[in-house]
Write a structure and sequence with these properties.
It comes from Sporolactobacillus inulinus. The chain is an all-alpha fold. The protein has three domains: about 5-65, 434 Repressor (Amino-terminal Domain) (Orthogonal Bundle), CATH 1.10.260; about 70-180; about 190-299, Serine Threonine Protein Phosphatase 5, Tetratricopeptide repeat. About 70% of the residues lie in helices and about 0% in strands. The chain has helices at about 5-15, 20-25, 30-35, 45-55, 60-65, 75-85, 90-105, 110-125, 130-145, 155-160, 170-185, 195-210, 210-230, 230-250, 250-270, 270-285, 290-295. It is elongated and about 75 Å long. The N and C termini lie far apart (about 60 Å). About 35% of the residues are buried. The mean pLDDT is about 90.
Length: about 300
């Protein structure tokens, strides 16, 4: 059941013990606001924004209530996509992909289409182990987003899942622009994990291109940011990646300590899917005896 706008505004106002006169403020008469609540008038954009501000409620909260305290359609797709914390969450990625496919059967939407492409790219990278197969999907997303003057939460989330598909210098340039946008809009970005995700992805991109010194710098930045936002599964990955980098920089003992530390975090927090993903990453990136780490042996 979907409530009419006026019904929701009235419900929220009454729950907060606000009067119609208070909500109307100096932007409209009380009688005008009463008509909006009675569903006899649609507010202008300016009046609507004023009403939300006076009610101390966001647009997302309003639509959630309007949809009987649930999300559906594009709102649910975007919400679930933004909530994806790692590409290792394959079941969740697949669920988002299926929602996109179903939605696009009857609707056209650039953002939902881009999310679908990103899900396909993630599948190609993490299941088929093929950046070559992922690139066409990443490029389709980039063709649209590269033309935009600014990137906001959803664009930044999309880009974070594709920038490493491009040649090194291009990928770095895209990611550094995105980090600048995140810092500029830090008060309105809807995902506290976003900056750390970019830093983690930059670390691995640089490592795979043998830029170990720069990768080391971004690994440290990843650790700092994950610690700041208390993102512990990201912190585990950051420690492991820094450890792998140190091993390549011929500081194997320091590296092994950090790898073991990262794996321990995964174990303590029961991050099973993350643990499996980082073990797979260790097999791909190093020649270390991973079985010793699993057994707790760093000799």
């Amino acid at each position: 059941m979907r409530y009419q706008l006026g019904e929701v505004l009235k419900r929220v106002r009454q729950s907060k013990r606000y009067t119609q006169k208070y909500i109307a403020g100096d932007q409209m008469s009380r009688a005008t606001y009463a008509k909006i609540e009675a569903c006899n008038m649609q507010p202008t954009v300016g009046k609507f924004m004023h009403i939300l501000k006076r009610l101390d409620i966001s647009y997302e909260e309003l639509t959630y209530i309007q949809n009987s305290y649930s999300l559906n359609g594009k709102d649910k797709i975007v919400h679930d996509f933004i909530k994806l914390r790692t590409s290792a969450e394959f079941q969740k990625v697949n669920a988002v992909y299926e929602m996109c496919t179903e939605y696009l059967k009857n609707n056209f939407d650039n953002v939902v289409q881009d999310i679908l492409y990103v899900c396909k790219a993630m599948y190609a990278i993490h299941i088929e182990r093929s950046f070559e197969k992922a690139f066409p999907y990443a490029n389709k997303v980039w063709e649209r987003l590269s033309k935009l003057d600014n990137w906001y939460s959803i664009e930044l989330k999309l880009i974070n899942n594709i920038f490493f598909c491009f040649p090194l210098e291009t990928g770095i340039a895209i990611a550094e622009r995105a980090l600048g946008e995140i810092d500029r809009f830090s008060y309105i970005i809807r995902n506290d994990d976003l900056k750390s995700s970019y830093l983690l992805n930059l670390t691995i991109l640089l490592f795979k291109n043998h830029k170990y010194n720069k990768a080391y710098i971004y690994a440290n930045k990843s650790i700092e940011e994950c610690t700041r936002v208390k993102r512990f599964e990201g912190l585990a990955v950051a420690y492991i990646r820094k450890g792998v980098i140190l091993d390549k920089m011929e500081k194997s003992e320091q590296g092994r300590i950090l790898i073991k530390k990262g794996l321990s975090i995964c174990k303590v927090l029961d991050l099973d899917s993350m643990y499996e993903a980082v073990i797979q990453e260790l097999h791909e990136l190093t020649s270390l005896d991973i079985d010793h780490f699993i057994a707790g042996d760093t000799d």
